[in-house]
Design brief:
This protein has a domain of 127 residues: Tetracycline Repressor, domain 2 (Orthogonal Bundle), CATH 1.10.357. It starts with 8 loop residues before the first helix and ends with a helix. With 189 residues, it is mainly α. It contains 9 helices and no strands. InterPro entries: Homeodomain-like_sf, HTH_TetR, Tet_transcr_reg_TetR-rel_C_sf. This is TetR/AcrR family transcriptional regulator. Keywords: DNA-binding, Transcription, Transcription regulation. GO terms for molecular function: DNA binding.
Length: 189
């Protein structure tokens, strides 16, 4: 019989921060984070200098998995147009989860309001990476203005995520046609 080791205090704090800050917001208290992680405040402060550092580490730790869930595989040989549409299809699938509250990286930026906050910087980097993906694909697909198109695509992505996150709109039937119209206008193949 094998027993799995219980995750360490650091991992439990990172998981609690990811779950609670996404569900409750970045202003969740240290007491609640520690309680959810089963870790004392003293232990938390030994591992992280502050709650802000914990939030930043939690966002950083999940960034790669988030991008992997959205982007096509690196060996995906579909045309740029289909690779861009893939991202929006993945985003729609993520938004269908009952506990979806919008893109966690956008939510953090909105809640913190401080662009210099370390967690905001992580969130901005994630958004910049997604925008860069859109720009690269737009350029490879022959877009008339890849910079403009990439900015339009991230606007649609974030707007759709926010609307789905507050349950004000469903993504189905609206986002893909909008993105398709942008791609058509820009001449992306």
């Amino acid at each position: 019989m094998t027993t799995e080791a219980m995750p360490g205090s650091r991992e439990r704090l990172l998981a609690a921060a990811a779950t609670l800050t996404y569900r409750e917001g970045v202003n969740i208290g240290v007491d609640a984070l520690c309680k959810a992680a089963g870790v004392s405040k003293r232990s938390m402060y030994k591992l992280f200098e502050s709650k802000d550092e914990l939030l930043t580490a939690s966002l950083e730790e999940r960034a790669s998995a988030y991008m992997t869930a959205l982007l096509p595989a690196t060996d995906d040989v579909r045309p740029p147009r289909e690779r861009i549409l893939h991202v929006f299809g993945q985003a729609e699938a993520l938004a269908d989860a009952p506990d979806f509250h919008g893109c966690r990286y956008l939510v953090v930026q909105i809640e913190l309001k401080d662009p210099d906050h370390p967690a905001s910087q992580v969130a901005r980097r994630v958004k910049e990476n997604l925008t860069a993906f859109f720009r690269t694909e737009a350029e490879q697909g022959g877009a008339s203005d890849p910079d403009l198109l990439s900015r339009q695509l991230i606007l649609v992505f974030d707007g759709a995520s926010a609307r789905a996150g507050i349950k004000a709109d469903t993504r189905g039937g609206l986002v893909i046609p909008t993105v398709t119209a942008l791609l058509d206008t820009a001449g992306v193949r």
